[in-house]
Write a structure and sequence with these properties.
This protein is an alpha/beta fold. The chain is about 30% helix and about 30% strand. It contains 6 helices and 8 strands; from the N terminus they run ββααβαβαβαβαββ. The strands form 2 sheets. The chain has a 6-stranded mixed sheet with strand order 1-7-6-4-5-8, sandwiched between helices. α3 (about 55-70) packs across α4 (about 95-100). The radius of gyration is 19 Å and the shape is elongated.
Length: about 210
């Protein structure tokens, strides 16, 4: 039976803290701050700054994972990125985020939130590990506040009050059993069934 472990965990949060009261005052949400806290359990959230994007936050998480995971050779078999940029046009780009972090994945995969987000990324990572891959990185990076800041709240304010920005990631490693032989590098071929994630070439091929 294939064993796997979480070898490293990392996160990135923008500096700007937005409290419930600021959210109500600045964006006109029709709630009291105390009610908002009681109803959602959220007291504050982070909003990305002008230079913080899904790609820049993902790259920051990747650099921390490389350090925490002690990846002297920053090679991983698969890097999976999922994210929501709030319609700003920056979603995707796993290969670019890897390049920004100095990471060398054999395969970079973009998953959209509609494809299941982080949960789908974990399931896909496990399939790669089952097929013999040694190391798989997953990063989720979101700038969901953009819709609110641009005056496009979701669901008549039913979701906007809990949206925030940030990124998180994990490094998953295969743990071999006795007598197991694992190829040093591998990449799962795309399946012919169902909707497919966008597959990006490794950044080394971009020149």
């Amino acid at each position: 039976m294939v064993q796997r472990r979480i070898a490293a965990v990392a996160a990135y949060l923008p500096e700007r803290v937005v409290t419930n009261q600021e959210l109500i005052t600045s964006y006109g949400l029709p709630h009291a701050a105390d009610w908002l806290h009681e109803a959602t359990g959220v007291a504050e959230r982070r909003f990305a700054g002008a230079t913080e994007t899904t790609l820049s936050m993902a790259a920051a998480v990747l650099r921390e994972l490389i350090e925490v995971g002690r990846l002297r050779d920053p090679f991983v078999d698969v890097f999976i990125m999922t994210g929501d940029d709030g319609g700003g046009g920056d979603a995707g780009g796993a290969a670019f985020a890897a390049c920004m972090a100095g990471l060398v994945p054999a395969l970079a995969i973009d998953l959209t939130p509609a494809q299941g987000g982080f949960a789908a990324a974990v399931e896909l990572a496990n399939r790669h590990l089952d097929r013999g891959c040694r190391r798989v990185l997953i990063v989720a990076s979101d700038v969901r506040s953009r819709r609110l800041r641009e005056g496009q709240p979701w669901g008549n304010h039913q979701i906007t009050e809990i949206l925030g920005d940030g990124a998180t990631g994990v490094l998953l490693e295969r743990v071999d059993g006795l007598g197991a032989e694992v190829p040093p590098r591998c990449a799962e071929p795309p399946s012919s069934r169902g909707s497919q994630p966008f597959l990006s070439a490794a950044h080394a091929n971009r020149g």
